[in-house]
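Narrative of activities, Objective 1.

The group set out to show that a structural description can be obtained from nothing but a protein's sequence at a throughput compatible with the screening campaign. Below is one input-output pair from the validation batch, recorded exactly as produced.
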Amino acid sequence: MQVQILPFGVLKDWLGSAAYPVELREGATVADLLQRLAADRPLHPASLRGIAVSVNAEYAPSAHVLREGDEVGLLPPVSGGAANASDEAEGANPVVTALTREPIDAEKLVTAVKRGEDGAVVVFDGIVRNNSRGRQTLHLDYEAYEQMAVKQMDTLAHDAIARFGVRHVTVVHRLGKLEVGETSVLIVVASAHRAQAFDACRWLIDTLKKTVPIWKRETFVDGVVWADGEPFPEGLAASDKEATHGA
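Output recorded for this entry:
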């Protein structure tokens, strides 16, 4: 059978930027696929350790059985066109999530979510700083597995409402080239009480940085690198054993 491999982030430097087919035996699992890829490129310094795998835009465990035509995303730890987020936030929607290549208007989005029943609106505004690890930053480039990222962001927003009891969550992430000082990600949480709003906002950004497939490429005055991502939560990442052994 044949599956389509879709590399992201730093793995594109190893496997190429375009999707490509891989032939596998019937009944092959995600673990078998990782073993095959590692065997095909044993001398390359890049590694499959710590990555997560998606099948048809859903996270998949190593034991997942692949089928003909599956789209398999290879997702290194994530860095931490959708609908117009500003327009959606002006309605009564409890959740607004979006990916955008346009500048994020933080003030407009924050204003749009406020309601009379809210006692607090907590905002996380992530911006591009002018340095990283002692190196001067020129600009950043963000890319995403867009179909999967939108689904993950929407799930996180609804989970936050259920977990913390807040009224509204907005999550907007920028893609493409960002200059120093621009907003890369905006999270807005509205709630009757400040404690729940603070807790939900912190949980959202911390979880987003570990689970939503968005990657950051940093351009410095002296070179370009993919940013090291945060480790995937337990149960999402392929272990060392899964990445190098299989049936």
